[in-house]
Fold this protein.
Amino acid sequence: MVIEAELLADEVGLANISLAALAERLGVKVPSLYKHVDGLPALHRLVEVRAKSEIADVLARATVGRSRDDALDALAFAYRDWARRHPGRYEATVTAPSADDPSSMEASGRAVGVMFDALAGYGLTGDDAIDATRSFRAAIHGFIALEAVGGFGMPRDVDLTFRRLVAALRLSLGEWSRVSA
Amino acid sequence: MVIEAELLADEVGLANISLAALAERLGVKVPSLYKHVDGLPALHRLVEVRAKSEIADVLARATVGRSRDDALDALAFAYRDWARRHPGRYEATVTAPSADDPSSMEASGRAVGVMFDALAGYGLTGDDAIDATRSFRAAIHGFIALEAVGGFGMPRDVDLTFRRLVAALRLSLGEWSRVSA
DNA sequence: CAGCTTTAGCTAAGTAGATTAGCTTTACGG
DNA sequence: CCGTAAAGCTAATCTACTTAGCTAAAGCTG
């Protein structure tokens, strides 16, 4: 059932999933859904946790055996790729973890952890590593988000811009300790 | 009335504004709102266009008389600053322009135009300039968005990370032509 | 096997928000 | 003074979410 909700989210956007549409797809009446999930907010939480966990797996798989620039590239391209193939689920990954839900916290932490570890391969530690992780995430997420809403209107191949952005990140992270405010 | 909708959006999030809440604030019954705006989607469009126009003004004002690194810094800090002070309106700026609405197209174009012009000060033209603008926007937007959802959980001053991100952008844009995929 | 229990469906009913239709009041210009 | 436009209102409809309580089937359990 969550599976169908995820497919629906990918098709219509996370914010537009409704129990009505989900029930229709499953060939079931709306109230029956309450036997499986505790209302719309709970469904959102389910999708959120599963999506975070899924992207953590994807990123982890993409970076095994790689380091530095190689790991950075793999991370960036796997990230965008997954986001484009699963837009609704991707939206769900960009959500504050519910502090009261341990599974949510765990899933959030794991996804960030993969990035953190990959970037640690640049020899970054402490605040440097945190800043690098945050900046990497920000750049990639921003790109994905703007691309998803059709924010890149100018006549220029978006894939090429993305490669350029990743190259810029490589450059910056390569001399991160010299990148100071 | 749009003003009140904007304040409401800033308080509860763009997605959570409702005609019911807006009417309550204005001390008016819900159907009365239809004398001023043609339904909830139309209200969203109004807020969107005004927000885009407002941020274009803010960015333009921030960059007058500045160039290169100086302009980049001013742009980045003004951007984040405005976004933090007006979270709901900021969300509204990150919306595909409705191709059928000229005012929306105009407002979108103006905001991007300011950034484009500021970055053109680095001597960038053509695809270089487009890539630079897109990358800059992506990085800043991603940071703002993650910050807004509470995505930066680690114990590290977020302001400092932002300064670092801007420094990285300065570095990359400074040698943008050498940043190739 | 008979009976109990769990599961997963259902209908009915209530609530909230958006929307439309149509009425009333008020202010203002001619 | 009168007509009209602006801005409010109530009543009613629609869609979506939610809860309560019923029922049938499947699966144990003695």
